[in-house]
From TrEMBL:
Gene3D superfamilies recorded: 2-enoyl-CoA Hydratase, Chain A, domain 1
Residues in CoA carboxyltransferase C-terminal domain copies: 270-533
Domain called CoA carboxyltransferase N-terminal: residue spans: 12-270
One Pfam assignment: Carboxyl_trans
Native species: Flavobacterium beibuense F44-8
InterPro entries: AcCoA_carboxyl_beta (IPR034733), ClpP/crotonase-like_dom_sf (IPR029045), COA_CT_C (IPR011763), COA_CT_N (IPR011762), MCCB/AccD1-like (IPR045190)
Gene Ontology cellular component list: methylcrotonoyl-CoA carboxylase complex
Name of the protein in its database record: Methylcrotonoyl-CoA carboxylase
GO molecular function list: methylcrotonoyl-CoA carboxylase activity
GO biological process terms held by the UniProt record: L-leucine catabolic process
Length: 542
């Protein structure tokens, strides 16, 4: 056992309790008072609705629980981005559920709410998963309308996606369980089936005040756009529900009747637990991100029966590649090795750094997985590509480009776990968010940034010093220290996994022990969508 095992374990468990504390806080949404207000109106909260809808005792994962965290404090905050998203099972069918949180500014859409809704639709589209919207929203968050209204990835894209998803044959069901105002009114009606809850649900393009102001008509909101109006007069909605539970039961009944479609056909056998104890991950993962460790010890605690068939074990060793099963699903694992390795040519290579040989190996392995229809799992703990003349002259750029090419053009589903560092172009080559992982999630130990705080501060200081020198000035040691500390502090704050999760660069921060569950749920979702195009790498950078 590593002499630092206990120290590491204490540290990682502290990070875990911080995660649990933060999660408990965001789960309160707009707070106890607003929750009590909803209950007084006879409504359930967004989380209560989802819990009631999902099959009892079934597995689920929450997407982007930390969306918006710390981003809108001057507006009173936007916990979970004002919308709760979960992948789970409804009447035995895997679905994605999107529920507006009316305790957060009446469910109005902040910019991050738009990004999160689009991510939910993207997950439904990529995996051909049925999507269920539980609508309770005041529409656009008006003080920030310029950041959520008109652009390609703003509110309007949701309805465009509703239409596109419908033509793709993806089931969409919406229940209006509170307000559904203005442009937002299109979402339920562009779904296949729309339910509305009597007395609490309402849909209109303009509420009674605006109607009075615009055309002088006197009308109350219920007559204008309540459940009876839309189920019996306008024909806008398809089912009238007595209350929230009735609406959710009706959705369960509708989902229950959905037939089975063609599957992708990823290999699955009976799941087996890892033979080595996954709890030991806490003690293996070092406290400091700069410390070395053997990633193989992590892999063995994540895969079924701890069995891993390593591909090219002796070559390009700063990346580990190989086949395994996770919860029965066959996977190809691409992981950054974090210990110093010695190549067969006698060269010492730093852990967590991608060299030409490791990039080449990963490229070929990724191609193999595509050839064999095996989902890919990336375990990131990467500081970037090797720098310096030896590496540059050896063509690291073209070797890295090949790896980026293979990751980008993969047709099998990809899943990314940010275990530790996720820096620079290493983030890209190891399937960061820009490379379409079906799910990307981080452990509490993760750090994501273009480079570390110390490195960034040193680079920027050199730039500053040389620009001053060009003007005939010199940077004083005091000024240098001040500048260094300022830059480092800013970067250090931004490398936090919470900073990344709040911006949905990842789908969440999870307990390492939940990794197998996330990957298994992710592959099961991906299995709904047959692969539609051949694997084609295009021009290879030889
Ligand atoms: C998509 C397109 C093309 C267009 C649009 O969406 S335009 C937006 C149009 N929306 C509206 O006009 C709705 C305005 N809001 C309401 O009418 C009501 O808030 C309600 C009927 C939706 C809900 O009423 P409720 O009594 O349950 O809640 P409130 O106390 O009124 O609101 C709670 C809280 O949220 C703030 N709020 C509500 N709506 C918005 C909004 N659209 N933008 C910004 N802020 C909104 C409201 O001020 C209050 O804030 P405080 O808690 O800070 O007082």
């Amino acid at each position: 056992m590593d002499i630092n095992f206990n120290k590491n374990e204490d540290h990682n468990k502290l990070l875990l309790s911080e995660l649990k504390r933060k999660l408990a806080k965001v789960k309160l949404g707009g707070g106890e008072k607003r929750i009590a207000k909803l209950h007084n109106e006879g409504k359930m909260t967004a989380r209560e609705r989802i819990d009631y809808l999902l099959d009892k005792d079934s597995e689920s994962i929450e997407i982007a629980a930390f969306a918006g965290e710390g981003m809108y404090e001057e507006h009173g905050g936007c916990p979970s981005g004002g919308v709760v998203v979960k992948i789970g099972y409804v009447s035995g069918k895997q679905c994605i559920v999107v529920a507006n949180d009316a305790t957060v500014k009446a469910g109005a859409w902040f910019p991050i709410t738009g990004k999160k809704n689009l991510r939910a639709q993207e997950i439904a589209i990529e995996n051909k998963l049925p999507i269920i919207y539980l609508v309770d929203s005041a529409g656009v968050y008006l003080p920030m309308q310029d950041e959520i209204f008109p652009d390609k990835e703003h509110f309007g894209r949701i309805f465009r996606n509703n239409a596109v998803m419908s033509s793709m044959g993806i089931t969409q069901i919406a229940a209006v369980m509170g307000s559904c105002v203005a442009g937002g009114a299109y979402l339920p009606i562009m779904s296949d089936e729309a339910l509305i809850v009597d007395k609490t649900g309402s849909i209109f393009l303009a509420g009674s005040y605006l109607v009075k102001a615009a055309i002088g008509e006197n009308i109350d909101n219920e007559t204008l756009g309540g459940a009876t109006t839309h189920c019996e007069i306008s024909g806008v909605t398809d089912y009238k529900a007595k209350d929230d539970k009735d609406a959710l039961n009706k959705i369960r009944n509708i989902v229950d009747k959905i037939g089975d479609f063609e599957k992708a056909g990823y290999s699955r056998t009976a799941p087996q637990k890892p033979a080595l104890d996954p709890n030991e991950i806490y003690g293996i993962l070092p406290k400091q991100r700069s410390e070395q460790y053997d990633m193989m010890e992590i892999i063995k605690r994540l895969v079924d029966n701890s069995e891993f068939e390593e591909y090219k074990a002796g070559y390009g060793q700063t990346i580990i590649t190989g086949y395994a099963r996770i919860d029965g699903w066959a996977v190809g694992i691409v992981a950054n090795q974090r210990k110093v390795v010695k190549s067969k040519k006698g060269e010492m290579q730093f852990g967590g750094v991608i060299y030409s040989d490791s990039a080449d190996k990963a490229t070929r392995f990724i191609a193999n997985c595509n050839q064999k229809k095996i989902p890919l799992v990336f375990l990131q703990d990467v500081t970037g590509f090797m720098v310096g003349s030896k590496s540059e002259h050896g063509g690291i750029i073209k070797d890295g480009a090949k790896m980026v090419n293979a990751v980008s053009n993969s047709v099998v589903p990809k899943f990314t776990v940010v275990v530790g560092n996720s820096y620079g172009a290493g983030n890209y080559a190891m399937c960061g968010k820009a490379y379409d992982p079906r799910l990307i999630f981080a452990w509490p130990s993760a750090e994501l940034a273009v480079m570390g705080g110390t490195q960034a501060a040193k680079v920027l200081l050199q730039i500053e010093a040389s620009s001053l020198k060009a003007r005939g000035e010199e940077i004083t040691p005091e000024k240098e220290e001040e500048l260094f500390n300022k830059i480092k502090a800013r970067y250090d704050a931004q490398v936090s996994p919470y900073y990344a999760a709040s911006r949905i660069w990842t789908d969440g921060i999870i307990d390492p022990l939940d990794t197998r569950k996330w990957i298994s749920i992710g592959i099961e979702a991906a299995n709904h969508a047959p692969i539609e195009k051949p694997f084609n790498l295009g021009v290879i950078q030889v």
